[in-house]
Amino acid sequence: MPDMSGKNGLITAAGDGIGRASALAFARAGARVLLMDIAADGVEQTAQLVRDAGGVAEVMVGDASDEDFAAQMVARVVELWGALDFAHNNAGVGAASTPFAEQDRSVWERMFRLNVFGTMGFMKHELRQMEQQGSGAIVNTSSMSGKNGSPGLSPYNATKWAVNGMTQTAALEYAAHGIRVNAICPGATLTTALAEWKDSSPQQYEAVTAAIPMKRMADPSEQADAAVWLCSDEAAFVTGTLLNVDGGDGVLGKQ
Ligand SMILES: NC(=O)c1ccc[n+]([C@@H]2O[C@H](COP(=O)([O-])OP(=O)(O)OC[C@H]3O[C@@H](n4cnc5c(N)ncnc54)[C@H](O)[C@@H]3O)[C@@H](O)[C@H]2O)c1
Asked: Please, what is the average pLDDT of the chain?
């Protein structure tokens, strides 16, 4: 396991799913984490899980699409612990499958507000702080949908291509400043929503997993472990990488 002891960072949308797993994984590696989510109960539960495991976690409740809130979170990490060593910009939403021509503009706008402008706002303030420090590592949660076409998911697909573009451009702009910027590209991951779908639609679940080379979905902890590694010194020469964590789906050219 990478050693993140003495490192301080923030994680967005840490109230459930990949964000919660990330909080637990960074803390297990020794880091102190400032967690946020729009749902107070979930993120407080995550913080308690971290503390129960012997880690250090603080919480802020807010909307990850709010750039002022992003600036406040970055400032809070520095106020609490002196530096922002890493950030996991994980917040993102999807929507039900709908053909392109039937997609409502409001869905595009909602998804761009959080997935793109939310990620951009956090990145901007993290990069400003990390540039002052001369060090830092950012990992964004993208998706395999950001590397391929995703029939039925046009707005989500477009937002994740945007996240990948922002990741690689920031990686190049800040590579000489001691700052690394990478993304994880999860394939299907068994978060609460997908676990409920697995229970309610077992045949569809079987069909989806049968098409994944590894014949299963990811556990959220597998996404989290990749995020921790990308932010750790073990990945010191890795920047601009869009890391598939997908059981082989990407090699098949699937979303
Ligand atoms: N689960 C998957 O199969 C999968 C696959 C590829 C990519 N992803 C990406 O992983 C990331 C996390 O997804 P997940 O499946 O773990 O989610 P999840 O649905 O399990 O959890 C999402 C969390 O985000 C919070 N949230 C929602 N809107 C928010 C907002 N505006 N501000 C702050 N918090 C907000 C929710 O309260 C919840 O705690 C997303 O960016 C998603 O696109 C997920």
From this structure: 97
Q: Which of 10, 12, 18 is the pocket-test mutation for ligand 1 (most atoms within 8 Å of CB)?
A: 18
- Report DSSP letters for 120-144, one per residue: HHHHHHHHHHHHHHT-EEEEEE--G
Q: Which residues line ligand 1 (CB under 6 A)?
A: 13, 15-19, 37-39, 42, 63-65, 90-94, 114, 141, 143, 186, 188-189, 191-194
Angle value at C-alpha 23, between 10 and 224, nearest 5 degrees: 105
Our answer to whether residue 205 is catalytic in this structure is no
Domain boundaries defined on the chain: 8-245
62 CA → ligand 1 middle, Å: 14
Q: Are 238 and 230 in contact (CB under 8 A)?
A: yes
| CATH architecture of the domain covering 8-245 | 3-Layer(aba) Sandwich (3.40)
As a whole number, mean pLDDT of residues 80-95 equals: 97
Which of 184, 191, 208, 212, when mutated, tests ligand 1's pocket best, judged by the most ligand atoms within 8 Å of its CB?
A: 191
Q: What's the token pair of residue 139?
A: 């990992």
Residue tagged active-site, from 156, 174, 205, 229: 156
d(CA 209, CA 113): 31
Each residue's pLDDT tens digit, 132-190:
999 999 999 999 999 999 999 999 999 999 999 999 999 999 999 999 999 999 999 99
Give residue 75 CA to ligand 1 midpoint distance, Å. Answer: 24
